[in-house]
Give the backbone structure.
Amino acid sequence: MGESFFYQHCHVVVTLAEVTFGKWEWSYALDAHARFARPNAGFPTRELALADATRAARARIARTSRLRTASANAATVRTPLAQAA
């Protein structure tokens, strides 16, 4: 079973699996490039697993976005100094 959504221009595909009766695990892919999982989590319902996967994906995207923004800002701050030299 899978769910799909966009968050900050990133396509997220969440895959949910009931590994044993009443024990759900999740994995998600970001733009079909990277896959992340939480094995042995054992969520009691599909909805809880989906909520946790969604939270984890959004947190990773936000964290990565902040890092990209910070490095881009640092590059633009250094550019005038390099041109002045």
The two ends are 57 Å apart (CA to CA).
